[in-house]
Amino acid sequence: MKFSRLTAAAAASVLLLTGLIGCAPPEKNNAEEQTESGVNARAATSAEDFGGMDGLVEAAKKEGELNVIALPPTWANYAAIIKAFEDKYGIKVNSGQPDASSKEEINAANQQRGRSTAPDVFDLGQSVALANTAMFAPYKVAVWDDIPMAYKEREGAWVNDYGGYMSIGFDSAKVPPVTSVNDLLKPEYNGKVALNGDPTQAGAAFSGVLMVALSQGGSADDIAPGVEFFRKLNEAGNFLPVDPTPATIESGQTPVVIDWNYLNAVETKKLPSWQVLVPPDHAVAGYYYQAINKDAPHPAAARLWQEFLFSDEGQNLYAAGGVRPVRADNMMADGSLDQAVAASIPVIDGPVTVPSPEQTDKATAYLSDNWAEAIG
Questions:
Q1: Where is the secretion signal located (predicted)?
Q2: Among positive and negative, which fits the CA dihedral 242, 246, 249, 253?
């Protein structure tokens, strides 16, 4: 699990993105060189700048590699997505720090700017993404017009790629069935309730606190009741300060996990007693933000990665991971969304809360001032 994208994935890093900061000068890369099509890949804002998709593919293959970060294999089907991209284009994907948080993605890009190991692309929670748009390179994929305006920045600095609902996963063999958020305060859950990440840094944890806030009378404009609930949870001894991973779930260390429904759902395939609840009266949905690092060491490959993620093939691979791809509605309408995976995308009847950027900024500021004290 990615700690909310945040911290918690069980997979070893192929590319080490830490410990590389020192006094050595930055490595030279060819990002400033023109491709064979005559365009500076770092300045390209669409495939047309390469002369079309064939030119982009050629430029990306010349670079030969792509650095991704914070993409756990079990998160949104990224293991299959990475393999499909490598198989399709013959480009090696270096997957670094799969357990990194959104904030740690940005830190890695800043710390390794100018090095060949810097991340080429980002997959971020809303609050971190919107706070760092100056680091993104505008780019519009070929299917740009098929992506609803609400889910993209007008000039292409970022695009929502997939989303889901906040949920409570629990091991019914170790704890009583969870029927509501308030159940978590009961003595039966002592030392058993984990949150996927730090809500001041991780998108999943942020949305988890928001879901709890709604259950306590709060709103997207008032996350304080959610923080107060976690204070009570901690005082009762029920809050477990452990970042959940597939390993902690399967070992029984974290028998209750507040996380995205698609991550909790993955565990049901490995642990038959694992169940997932999306509180129907307090549903919180959220999309992740896909963006290109403006200082990407492999700028053409970064742009080809975007094209792949938003293509029919990439969107169907997302859907196969239990997430809702951003083009889902249009693909359902034109029949390009695989019917088998479409049926697995959860549908929530009733109101769904999706915080606006302004609401997210306000809530993030409140969490920065109050979260540590509440669970300390």
A1: 1-24
A2: negative
